[in-house]
Amino acid sequence: MHDVFISHSKNDKPVADALCVALEKAHIRCWIAPRDVQPGRSFAGEITRALQNCKVLVLIFSANANSSDQVLREVQLAVSNHLHIVQFRIEEVVPSDDFAYFLGTPHWLDALTPPLERHIQTLIASIQALLGVAPEVPTVTEAPEADTKAAAGSTDLAPLLAEHVRALTTPSEQDREIPLQLWLSFPHAFVAGYGSVVEAKIENKSATPLQQVELMLESNGLVDNVHTPCRQVGQGNSVYFCLEVTPLKAGHFVLRCNVKGAQEDQNYAFRGAVPITINAAPENASIALNLADIQCVRGAGENTGQDFGAVKISNLLPAGSVRTLNDLLNVTFPQSFGRVPLELDYEVSRRDVARSRPAVSLSIPKKFLTSTQIGTKLKLEPIDPVGHVPALHLVARDEFKLGRSREEADFLTWFWPRSVENDDRTRRLSKLHVIAGQRGGKLILRDAGSANRATFEGHSLFETQNDPIDQRGTLVLSHEYQLDVTPFDSTLEGQLRIANERLWVDSAAQGPAARRGCVRFMPLNSEIALYTALWLFTDATCGASKMNPLVIPELPEVEARFHYYRQNFWIEDLAGGSAVILDEHKLVPGEIAPLVSGARLRLGHTVFRVTVES
Same domain, yes or no, for 152 and 290? Predict the structure, then answer.
């Protein structure tokens, strides 16, 4: 028996999934298609039976829903079965005559302004009132003090995932046919500090073999990221993996799934995510656990797809049968693969991937052998920009600061473009909100004493506690401003080597960098304000493809590579790109030149004025 039927257009799936997770977390039982359609039964019959047994229909109303015949039929059946109808409006759309006839004067709630999470919480309270139930406080498993703090700092991950996917996906990518499918199965409950496994299946749905396939799973809840390669997946075939993982700490986390592969002359990268629960290990040798709270996948969350259901061992075992840690670790779930819908992260030709590889030998053109300027910040300001090319800031400091102050922050967290509403949202962010840094060769994030706090991957950041950035994740400031944080490895094989370096005016000696590569910060729910900022350690490529740390749409897929070497900033031309011209000198592949204030750098059709700051 379900309490709520969620009616939505398939194009509004991210919001529907986020809403479903939030309602079920509040112990409100939801029916949502296609997750709850029983295999072998007709879709129409399942819809009819579900509506006959639910008490409330939540209509996610948008332009998509307004033009959907299926959603209209569901509303008609809800009226016929005397259900409460709650209209959750995510777009300001006037209902069609047909919808107006059936809706009449329903309970309604506008969710037109972000953040979505706030409106979902209001909806939950409204539905609880309609059902005549008080909000429930879930029983939790007793956890060690450190794990309890970790779990307490977490927030609901569903809105984070939903907004992330909505921002990531462009219309062209939505229409693209994904050539593969990823399926996951979780045979055991995750327990902090104890090894477990994740079973995975990659299925090639296309008529062309997938080559050089690689699957990576990463989460802040795991000790290490895990990955496994596969040479080839034939057309119409599947390949199975068993990946060993070690949960790190108790709480709710995002398990991010990245799949890379090559098909014909193109390289692809896809990404998806699954919300998971990691249970705290019981402190006592024998303890009665609440089975309803011990589960591995937390149900249908955004980008988990509606094929995942809440896996609870209370459905498999009688109460009281799990009383010790060994009992918990030995519980085996029936194998059940759930599909993880994948979004295209980037696509790039194999030729351009090859171009990003380092040249065998680099040399400095004679014109620039006397150019040198020590600095920690490179600013490239467009001169009469072609298109919408923003300014570029490359920061090579031990710390990288994010906030709304132009004087204090390296990355400007303004909601853009400017408007009265966006300026009001920006004011809720702190002048200096979050600081990224390096500690012992590791990248970390910490709160900078902000007024409205920040989270990374759904977990709160603190001034006195460093949160590692060992994976790609979502940083949220003041529950509103969202950033995709992506660490990039160096594309160089070892240290930078310049054949005629001894002829260059040596300004400063520099040992090997403690960290290689760079970190990209990209807004998810706002346009870039004024300039793009990159945290640079050694090197970063630029081009139109998202495989580059610096994404500049007007350029070829891979255009050039920036370096930070011996406390100077450098530019390297890559083979096959368009013109890279520094002070009227056209660089050729294999040439690298230092950048100094006052120089003019042309990338593609845009000329930048160079400024180097200490």
Answer: yes
In whole angstroms, what is the distance from residue 453 CA to residue 558 CA? Answer: 37
**Do the Cβ atoms of 432 and 440 come closer than 8 Å?**
no
How many other C-beta atoms lie within 10 A of the C-beta of residue 154?
Answer: 17
Answer whether 0.70 is exceeded by the pTM.
no
Residue 136 placed within a domain: no
Structure tokens at 555: 């350029």
Sign, Cα dihedral of 366, 368, 371, 377? negative
Find the radius of gyration of the CA atoms of the chain: 26
Domain boundary pick from 347, 367, 384: 347
* CB 259 within 8 Å of CB 214: yes
Token pair, residue 168, equals 């990531």
Q: Residue 449 carries which DSSP code?
A: S
- Written as six digits, the tokens of 6 are 């969620």
pLDDT at 175: 43
Nearest to 80 by CA among 109, 32, 48: 48
Contact 200, 243 (CB under 8 A): yes
**Token pair of 199, please?**
């079973």
Between 51 and 506, the higher pLDDT residue = 51
Write out the residue range of the structural domain in which residue 317 sits: 145-347
CATH of the domain at 501: 2.60.200.20
Q: Note whether 95 and 156 are same-domain residues.
A: no
Regarding whether 371 and 308 lie in a shared domain, the answer is no
- Over residues 174-198, the pLDDT tens digits come to 445 788 999 998 888 888 899 999 9
The answer on 326 and 383 residing in a single domain is no
